[in-house]
Specification:
Strand content: 15-25%
CATH topology of the largest domain: Hexokinase, domain 1
Largest sheet: 6 strands, mixed
Shape: globular
Length: 338
């Protein structure tokens, strides 16, 4: 239970949307005093967005803690998929608060992981979790975020990572052709270029341009009217009544790449405590993750496959995990006097 800490504004700032909520020490994290979601691109900067929210709810706050989609260095952050530069000191002064803390958005999710309830999770692989074992967090959303937790003997400590921007490694000939296609466009090709909301249209475009299958006229029409093609492609891939071969193949490739990346993270960290899939995409494509292709790709690690069979894999269903983690982080620092 949280005690003697004033109201805290917590937020999760992503490339597509921003979630904000205000928590009090009395009500705890189970009952926010106010909450709202905004489209990030509708605002020129974080300050304007926060002021808009505070004007709507009219609740006094003293501190803020924000998860941001990008690396945080020296109290400053640049949002990876937005033209925003955020500074803790500037925000504190502009908003008139006692403290403002920034943390990577995946670190915010990681802060919430030890406190998630069973109904917040879907188990893809039960495995054999090790008590106090390292935990990996992999989250395909607008981008591909990663973080991890280590046990210090008393509690889990969170750590940032930008592993999603590491080099993409193809798994078969089709993906090798896909890699060459993207190299001609971008030069360096990270796993995020494919394993994310921004990556799904890249896979689709490659398959279409390479002649893998013909794009149906109804799909072309839907895509021409869509501000974001990713939901259109994913929805069509999951629609058993209106088959789109390009969409189905796109989601299959995405699922395999995600499985291999989750396996890579589990091996790099020896994540015997489990891997947690965050972000907006995994809950949306649970049907695809359960069909066996994801686990096959996850386990395809040659001599070390037996290690991964023991690693639990969970999908985080609680869409507010990053906000809750940011709030917990803020309360923790406030209680310590920071």
């Amino acid at each position: 239970m949280i005690h003697k800490v004033a109201n805290i504004l917590a937020g999760d700032f992503g490339g597509t949307k921003t979630d904000l909520a205000i928590f009090s020490s009395e009500a705890g994290l189970e009952a926010p005093l106010a909450e709202a979601t905004f489209l990030s691109a509708d605002f020129p900067d974080l300050e304007t967005l926060v002021r808009t929210f505070l004007a709507q709810v009219n609740v006094k706050i003293e501190r803020a803690s924000f998860g941001v989609a990008g690396p945080v260095v020296g109290g400053q952050a640049t949002i990876t998929n937005l033209p925003w530069v955020i500074d803790e000191a500037q925000l504190r002064e502009t908003l008139g608060l006692l403290s403002v803390h920034l943390l990577n958005d995946l670190v915010a999710v990681a802060e919430a992981v030890p406190f998630l309830e069973p109904n917040d999770l879907y188990t893809l692989n039960e495995g054999e979790p090790t008590k106090g074992g390292t935990i990996a967090v992999v989250a395909p959303g607008t981008g591909l975020g990663e973080a991890y937790l280590t046990w210090d003997g008393k509690r889990y400590r969170t750590h940032a990572s930008e592993g999603g921007h590491a080099d993409f490694a193809p798994g078969d000939q089709l993906e090798m052709d896909l890699l060459r296609h993207l190299q001609s466009r971008f030069g360096h090709v990270s796993t995020e270029r494919l394993c994310s909301g921004k990556g799904i249209p890249n896979i689709y475009a490659f398959l279409k341009e390479s002649g893998y299958a013909i794009e149906p006229s109804w799909m072309a029409e839907q895509l021409s009217m869509a501000a974001d093609p990713t939901p259109v492609i994913v929805n069509a891939a999951l629609d058993n009544q209106h088959r789109c071969e390009l969409c189905t193949a796109t989601l299959n490739i995405f699922t395999s790449i995600l499985g291999r990346e989750v396996g890579n993270a589990a091996l790099r960290l020896l994540a015997t405590g489990g891997v947690y899939l965050g972000g907006g995409i995994p809950p949306r494509i649970l049907a695809a993750l359960k069909n066996g292709q994801f686990m096959e790709a996850f386990l395809y690690k040659g001599r070390l496959s037996y290690v991964l069979k023991r690693v639990p894999i969970y999908v985080i269903l609680n869409r507010n995990a990053a906000v809750l983690g940011a709030a917990r982080y803020g309360f923790k620092l406030a209680e310590s006097g920071c």
